[in-house]
Specification:
By secondary structure, the protein is an alpha+beta fold. 38% of the residues lie in helices and 10% in strands.
Length: 239
């Protein structure tokens, strides 16, 4: 994510993952290479989940864990992050140093997230920017008809919907390739997991989709066969 980190500081932080104004995770000894976000010294109230919710009160299916060095924060994944305060660390280096190891600019379930860990919160934005090729391409996609850049939650919502759709498509593709049987020997067991002494088939779309994508990357023979299947059915479709 180095490129994302370097580009992150070029714009305001108004979106979710390591994108605008977010620093990726450079080494602590070189914070100046990481973030250029812009923070006003009199920053507004910190952004997200500032009220602490005990982990045991968060439904299991909602729980997320963010590792922050030697500690971890359990939070509710279903509570979206709000927009962080406008930041430009490139113009306020002292503020970057001040918030690098300890900061309350962004709160997660009542705990401040140091700037050096913001990449863990904002990764989806940076990944999307990298995939699109540039910050300009990112904002061309995530600007509304009135010319206003979409806000964090709006972009995050679109990215989440896109991930769900992509995962669903990849699950269909995997089942199509293996004839609906994800336990076949030629799957190499990638759709199975062990629980206790028993093996089970993956059931969640994101897990199946991830396993299918990994399989296509690792197994050239299966990737070629899949390419031929798609090409024969949809000659003009990208694979």
């Amino acid at each position: 994510m180095t490129r994302a980190v370097q580009m992150a500081g070029c714009c305001r932080v108004s979106a979710p993952s390591r994108f605008p104004g977010v620093s990726a995770s450079p080494e602590p000894s070189t914070p100046s290479n990481s973030a250029t976000t812009h923070v006003q010294p009199q920053h507004p109230t910190a952004v997200v989940q500032h009220t602490l919710t005990p982990a045991e009160l968060i439904p299991i299916e909602h729980r997320g864990v963010l590792v922050l060095g030697d500690r971890s924060v359990t939070f509710d994944k279903w509570i979206p992050l709000c927009d962080p305060p406008g930041i430009h660390f490139s113009q306020q280096i002292s503020e970057l140093f001040h918030h690098w190891n300890s900061s309350d600019l962004v709160m997660l379930n009542g705990e401040g997230v140091p700037v050096k860990y913001w990449d863990k919160l904002f990764k989806y934005l940076a990944e999307e920017m990298q995939q699109l090729g540039s910050e300009d391409a990112f904002w061309a996609k995530y600007t509304d008809s009135n010319g206003e850049k979409l806000r964090y939650k709006e972009i995050l919502s679109q990215l989440k919907a896109a991930r769900i759709a992509t995962n669903a498509m990849d699950v269909r593709n995997a089942k199509l390739y293996f004839g609906g049987d994800l336990t076949r020997p030629d799957t190499n067991g990638v759709f199975m997991y062990r629980k206790g002494s028993c093996m089970h088939v993956l059931t969640k779309n994101d897990a199946i989709a991830s396993a299918w994508r990994d399989l296509l990357l690792r197994d050239a023979a299966i990737a070629l066969q899949w390419y031929n299947i798609v090409a024969s059915q949809h000659p003009n479709a990208p694979v």
